Amino acid sequence: MDREKVVVGMSGGVDSSVAAYLLKEQGYDVIGVTMQIWQDEEIDVQEENAGCCGLSAVDDARRVAEALDIPYYVMNFKGEFRDNVIDYFVEEYQKGNTPNPCIACNRYVKWESMLKRSLAIGAKYIATGHYARVIKLPNGRYTLKKAVGIRKDQTYALYNLTQYQLEHTLMPVGDYSKEEVRKIAEKINVRIANKPDSQEICFVPDNDYASFIEEYTNKKIEEGNFVDTNGKVLGKHKGIINYTVGQRKGLGLSLGKPAFVVEIRPDTNEVVIGDNSDVFDDTLYADNLNFTAIEKLENKMQLEAKIRYSHKPATCTIEMVDENMLKCVFEEPQRAITPGQAVVFYDGDMLIGGGNIIRK
Ligand SMILES: Nc1ncnc2c1ncn2[C@@H]1O[C@H](COP(=O)(O)OP(=O)(O)OP(=O)(O)O)[C@@H](O)[C@H]1O
Fold it and tell me: So where does ATP get bound (predicted)?
């Protein structure tokens, strides 16, 4: 019988290298692929900032594939990445939102584009080194469970995968702890690069996204007013793309007390400043919804929600208020609910779904 073919997304790091090894051990016909997604001549990024897909990732991944004796290819997804991730990222900031490009990259590039090409070469699955587990529920739906014992949960950035994508996904390291994965990497003795810690946004050098956006759009960012919660002008800001809700640093205001960004108003080009207490709210609205564990939200549900990658899940109740919009009310007010970020819902360690936080 033919072995099932799986394409493993290889970044040259420990997790995806071990993922490839485990799948081979499990009897799959494994193919390694590194996606080239952004590095090009138009965006001048230095190699040391190359993040997950610079030239060194290709060299490292190729070496690992050779050691594992699996076929290896580099696939170019720069166009898909530009259209779905960089353009979205820039547009969201220009609208006064704070986007999460990893979520868009996962859904549209790592999964949609890579899956399409993988299926075209006869694969049944794609696999990554994410610490999460794909499960099929009794209701026939696919979803993710958080991996056990992992400090940084990776399901948050994966909430937007479709049923079809999940059905064709394997995440073999999700059954192991990070320590176990490191041990496996030592045992199989593949030379895995000690990658520098991922920078926050892989395509933005030095995390200076404001300069990146100016350069990318070839447009100077327009200055505007800082105002207080009553509308009184407090000073000049450097352009709304420089700010996010809850921000304290880098405001350049001296008001004799700590000042925080409470709201960004793209229509009037204003940034609203207040006290820390003004940054707390118990209600948010989200659109662009994607549910995994359930087909749709019919009745109110009490769940836990994360409003950013590093947020500790908080108890909330969600309900639909419109065909494509939900309302989420937290038991306790949460700090810095930020338009453009994802809100992701869990029942214990099981992903239920999520959406995009909107300004209301
Ligand atoms: N350029 C790429 N090409 C193909 N797959 C990739 C690429 N970058 C990341 N991936 C896949 O996405 C997964 C998660 O990416 P992330 O950048 O979070 O890596 P990580 O958790 O540090 O894993 P690793 O140790 O494998 O680098 C990786 O394990 C890998 O399977």
Answer: 9-16, 35, 129
